[in-house]
Specification:
CATH topology of the largest domain: Endonuclease III, domain 1
Radius of gyration: 22 Å
CATH architecture of the largest domain: Orthogonal Bundle
Number of domains: 3
Number of helices: 14
Strand order of the largest sheet: 1-3-2
Largest sheet: 3 strands, antiparallel
Shape: globular
Helix content: 40-55%
Number of strands: 3
């Protein structure tokens, strides 16, 4: 792990924070007021903002995991119109969900979302982080986001954008362990006194990292908490895991196959026809991976969208 930044690296008037620094009560209050004030006048008007419906919050967070917000903004309304409640999705087939999801990428998210719909319909919504994490495909970040946005829990969530601004604003090493960043995020979220404040802070924290403390060309001049920031005009690069190149990859071929099946009548194509439409190499490897993940299957020379055989529906889990 890199050493803590030296105080000599920053202007003399600013003290570099050590990796163990936690802001005091007054510091937390000032920082929160500044970021919330900025957010109230500068946030983007996404269609999922403002809702406390746990299903709508979960759908938006799952979509946003690997897809740009601008793209999600276009796809979220029609998807919610098709599946407005967990019950609506639980009554649908896997194939129907995959068709509605087509084009958003990382299609396993759609099947995990449907398994969550079945679980919620069977047992109801958990309202705490631990319970939310037990839902299919819901990890620590998504559980915390839903807990704050839907259930008003004063917890923080650390995505790539939040991680970046915490590291920079508090002068932390880029390699600061996730547990330490989570503790800091929770410290900043804790003062929320009601559900609306918890939700506003969650949105504001993510928006601030995305729009002001950007990965490239951070907008220090527009930053509401620039005073005392050890990274002002000296923002460090906060590395993130790099994905393998998409073009020509098995992942690209998987996506092409699923798009063709989603468009096809009956969501099925002969293997020969599919091969002519998708082209390129890696078709067999992609098909094996899709079958393993339950996203497509082959039978008698025909490729079908979704898993083979009947899938669990609301009727199979009780009234």
């Amino acid at each position: 792990m890199p050493d803590a930044p030296s105080a000599a690296r920053y202007p003399d008037r600013v003290r570099a924070h050590s990796r163990t620094d936690v802001p005091g009560h007054d510091g937390v209050a000032r920082l929160r007021r500044a970021i919330l004030g900025w957010y109230s006048g500068a946030h983007r008007g996404f269609p999922w903002r403002g809702t406390t419906d746990p299903w709508a919050v979960l759908v938006s967070e799952v979509m946003l995991q690997q897809t740009q917000a601008s793209r999600v903004s276009e796809r979220f309304p029609p998807f919610m119109a098709r599946f407005p409640t967990p019950r609506a999705m639980a009554r649908a087939a896997d194939r129907d969900v995959l068709v509605a999801w087509s084009g958003l990428g990382y299609n396993r998210r759609a099947l995990a979302l449907r398994r969550t719909a079945l679980a919620v319909e069977a047992s109801g919504w958990p309202s705490d982080v631990a319970g939310l994490e037990r839902l299919p495909g819901v990890g620590p970040y998504t559980a915390r986001a839903v807990a704050a946005l839907a259930f008003g829990q004063p917890v923080g969530a650390v995505d790539t954008n939040v991680r970046r601004w915490l590291v920079r604003r508090f002068g932390l090493p880029p390699g600061t362990p996730p547990r330490a960043l989570q503790a800091l995020a929770d410290c900043l979220a804790a003062p929320a006194t009601d559900a609306a404040q918890a939700a506003d802070w969650m949105h504001a924290s993510m928006e601030f990292g995305a729009r002001v403390c950007r990965a490239r060309a951070p907008r220090c001049g527009a930053c509401p908490v620039t005073a005392g920031c050890p990274s002002r005009e000296l923002a460090v690069h906060v590395p993130v895991a790099r994905r393998a190149p998409f073009a020509g990859s098995v992942r690209a071929t998987r996506g092409a196959i699923l798009r063709q099946l989603a468009r096809a009548p009956g969501h099925s194509l002969t293997a020969a026809r599919l091969g002519s439409l998708v082209g390129g190499g890696g078709l067999e490897r992609a098909m094996v991976a899709l079958e393993r993940d339950g996203l497509a299957h082959r039978a008698d020379g025909v490729v079908h969208l979704g898993p083979p055989g009947p899938t669990a529906t609301l009727a199979t889990i009780g009234p």
